[in-house]
Design brief:
Layout (H helix, E strand, L loop, with lengths): L1 E3 L2 H10 L4 H20 L6 E6 L3 H15 L3 E6 L12 E5 L18 E4 L21 E5 L11 H5 L1 E5 L10 E3 L5 H4 L13 E5 L6 H13 L4 E5 L13 E2 L7 H6 L5 E4 L7 H13 L4 E3 L2 H5 L13 E3 L3 H8 L7 H12 L2 E4 L4 E4 L5 E4 L11 H14 L4 H18 L8 H13 L11
Parallel strand pairs: 2-3, 2-4, 4-5, 5-6, 6-7, 8-17, 9-10, 9-12, 10-11, 12-13, 13-14, 14-15
Antiparallel strand pairs: 1-8, 15-16, 16-17
Amino acid sequence: MIPVVTPAEMAEIDAASPEAVDVLVGRAGAAVARAVLEELGGGYGRRVVVLAGPGSNGADGRVAAERLEQRGVRTIVVDALDAPERLPPADLVVDAAFGTGLRHPFEPPRTSSPVLAVDLPSGLDGLTGVAMGAPMGAVRTVTFAALKPGLLLGEGPGLAGRVEVADIGLDVSGAGAFLVEDSDISGLVPMRRPDAHKWHSACWVVAGSPGMEGAAHLAAAAAQRAGAGYVRLSVPGGVDAGTPVEVVGHPVDVGLAEVSGDLDRFASLVVGPGLGTDGDTWSGVRRLVASSTVPVVVDGDALNALVGGDQERRWVAPVVLTPHDGEYERLTGSRPEPDRIGAARALARSFDAVVLLKGPTTVVAAPDGRVRLVTAGDSRLATAGTGDVLAGILGAFVARGADPLDAAAAAAHVHGRLATACPETGLVAGDLATHLVEVLVGLKVDPLEGASF
């Protein structure tokens, strides 16, 4: 996983470094110069304009300019505080005007040349990804020591281009947030034990309502494909005939009273997809989440059941909440702030639960402040039912023994990778489970030690 630190955290890391400032600037400038040469495919005779500000970001750019001149690059340094309306023609512009410390809108000079940004595009808020002014969109960004949230959130991904993290010798081992990569998934989801039987990773899905049975089917099918050894499905008030053939149907009444009696045999519980708005069912959800002795994934309509009420939010077992922005607003009374990491952390603390805050970049937060960010996936997932699939995958990963934070991060990443395994258009939620096995194999998530699906 790649560490992610806020601008404030980065300032503390800089201040704590035993290295002299000029040493760090030298390393940063050298990293920028290398990236420029890679971007240009060589240096001799090329023309580069460096837009340099008054702070450390500008110092990095000036060192890069010196290095580039030594390689035969015709370099012009332009003062960002006294820049013309349009920059001179160049093969590449290096945006070293302002880094993470900018607190006001920035209107850069115009250019038609490609841009390489230093640390992050000037004018992009390093915490939220909100553009202040009109930042120049970069084809590549070289950031230092760790990713900044603004490169992953809001308008950041569209403005930063390809992002490279350059190691300049700063200690980021205390980072509390990390970006999940493909290579991390197999380490987050435990393999089945050699002596495993179906009850070791059994998952109970309580979902569906009249007209919403499909949500229950999607969640149950995803839990099966993601490695749950046994999946039980209960639709409050009855089980419909369309239940997946390998899933064990189990009737429960609308108040969910029957769930508690047999729950100890299971390793996880998923409650909520397509559950509807019946008042008795919502009361049952509140009682079930509070008393469950196994980890609970609370999704969809079950999240709405937790709104208000007098529950103390003191759970017996770990709880994972999976809100989108609208559900977050219902739970808290307001939409998530642009600082989505802070928003997810606040909800996690308030509900003493792991929170998977869905979005173009999904933020997963634990009550103790640990955060995982997931950028896999794209807008193809913005269709009905895909969240039900995510809930099923998450339930299976918890049932397999993953820590709830790890399970949520891994499930969100796998869910995102499912989108890229599907056609570019026409995706429906039912397509995802059909690609789940191949995605898990590609990510080396193996249910059997030393084997694959």
